[in-house]
């Protein structure tokens, strides 16, 4: 079935208007609004909202391809592995040029333009989180801790273990179908980023570095972050997928953490799969959901 562009635009507008109108009447809950919003989207949308007082999930029973969201999990596993061997994120790695893929998303190549080079684990971790650099992620998997070891470590600390990490960016690039085997539930991802900011998972210095990088992410500014204003600290990790054989976006994701100046906080994960539309329209759906949640929470109307 061919989905008309005007229907996608209507879905995005409803994400904002339905929430606003319902709040004015005071008759609906956040969950009611979110259910109304996802019903209009040309794809599957999973949502998890977690605060100290409430947890709301929509379509949480689906396994969503993580794409680069797994770099959040990877960062924690890398920090733990380095610390386990008595080292720090300042540990140097020597990288041979042939280890790099010149044809993948990799902003680090703008700095490391030619030849072999040395780089710290921490700088690679920064590239992997803030710029979602695929070469940085592949190098960390190769030199520090494998995807399956990453999976095992996060399962040992996570509050919700409904996820799996088996493959690197290079493996998923070679076979796009493998992307579906690195999966998560929205609740699992939302709980993990909340743990990063509210619990001790690795050494303080390493965890502070990870939190800093998550707060400085440059990808997907038009997704969850579209709701944030100067009154909130916002950190997040995005993930974007390939198109499947039907031409649908396999994944378009964002998981974030919001902390207000009064100390209140929440995490929000939105995962979209099999989306019949552009990346821009998928981002608008995520932004609309985020604005609805943000407004509910800021006005203390979540119930």
Describe this structure in words.
The protein has 303 residues and is an alpha+beta fold. The protein has helices spanning 5-25, 30-38, 70-84, 121-130, 134-143, 147-157, 169-174, 186-198, 204-215, 279-298; strands at residues 44-51, 55-58, 64-65, 92-95, 117-120, 163-164, 183-184, 232-240, 252-260, 265-273. It folds into 2 domains: 1-41, no CATH class; 57-271 and 288-298, 3-Layer(aba) Sandwich (Beta-lactamase), CATH 3.40.710. It is 42% helix and 17% strand. Helix 2 (30-38) runs antiparallel to helix 10 (279-298), helix 4 crosses helix 5 and helix 4 runs parallel beside helix 9. The longest helix has 21 residues, at 5-25. The two termini are 37 Å apart.
Fold topology:
Blueprint: H1 5-25, H2 30-38, E1 44-51, E2 55-58, E3 64-65, H3 70-84, E4 92-95, E5 117-120, H4 121-130, H5 134-143, H6 147-157, E6 163-164, H7 169-174, E7 183-184, H8 186-198, H9 204-215, E8 232-240, E9 252-260, E10 265-273, H10 279-298
Antiparallel strand pairs: 1-2, 1-10, 3-7, 4-5, 6-7, 8-9, 9-10
User: How would you describe the shape?
Assistant: globular
Question: Which sequence of SSEs, written as H and E, runs from N to C?
Answer: HHEEEHEEHHHEHEHHEEEH
How large a portion of the residues is in β-strands, by DSSP E? Answer: 15-25%
Spatial extent as radius of gyration: 19 Å
Distance between the termini: 37 Å
pLDDT below 50 for ≥5 consecutive residues: which ranges? none
The CATH homologous superfamily of the largest domain is termed: DD-peptidase/beta-lactamase superfamily
Q: What's the mean pLDDT score?
A: 92
Number of domains: 2
The description of the largest β-sheet is: 5 strands, antiparallel
CATH topology of the largest domain: the name is: Beta-lactamase
Structural class: alpha+beta
* Total E-strand runs: 10
> With helices defined by DSSP (H or I, 4 residues minimum), what is the helix count?
10
Supply the CATH class of the largest domain: Alpha Beta
Helix content: 40-55%
């Amino acid at each position: 079935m061919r989905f008309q562009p005007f229907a996608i635009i209507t879905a995005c507008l409803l994400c904002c208007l339905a929430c606003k109108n319902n709040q004015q009447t005071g008759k609906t809950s956040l969950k009611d609004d979110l259910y109304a919003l996802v019903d209009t989207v040309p794809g599957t949308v999973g949502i998890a909202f977690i605060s100290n007082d409430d947890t709301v999930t929509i379509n949480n029973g689906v396994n969503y391809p993580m794409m680069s969201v797994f770099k959040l999990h990877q960062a924690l596993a890398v920090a733990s592995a380095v610390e386990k061997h008595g080292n720090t994120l300042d540990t140097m790695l020597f990288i041979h040029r042939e280890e790099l893929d010149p044809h993948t998303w990799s902003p680090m190549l703008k700095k490391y333009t030619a030849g072999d080079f040395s780089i710290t684990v921490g700088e690679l971790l920064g590239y992997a989180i803030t710029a979602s650099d695929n070469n940085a992620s592949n190098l960390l998997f190769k030199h520090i801790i494998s995807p399956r070891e990453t999976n095992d470590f996060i399962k040992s600390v996570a509050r919700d273990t409904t996820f799996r990490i088996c493959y690197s960016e290079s493996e998923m690039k070679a076979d796009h179908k493998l992307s579906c085997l690195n999966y998560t539930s929205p609740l699992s991802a939302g709980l993990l980023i909340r743990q990063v900011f509210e619990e001790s998972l690795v050494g303080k210095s390493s965890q502070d570095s990870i939190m800093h990088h998550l707060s400085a992410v440059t990808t997907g500014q038009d997704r969850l972050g579209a709701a944030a204003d100067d009154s909130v600290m916002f950190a997040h990790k995005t993930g974007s997928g390939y198109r499947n054989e039907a031409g649908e976006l396999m994944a378009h994701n964002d998981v974030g953490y919001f902390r207000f100046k009064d100390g209140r906080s929440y995490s929000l994960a939105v995962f979209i799969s099999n989306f019949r539309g552009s990346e821009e329209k998928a981002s608008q759906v995520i932004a609309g959901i985020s604005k609805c949640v943000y407004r509910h929470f800021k006005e203390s109307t979540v119930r």
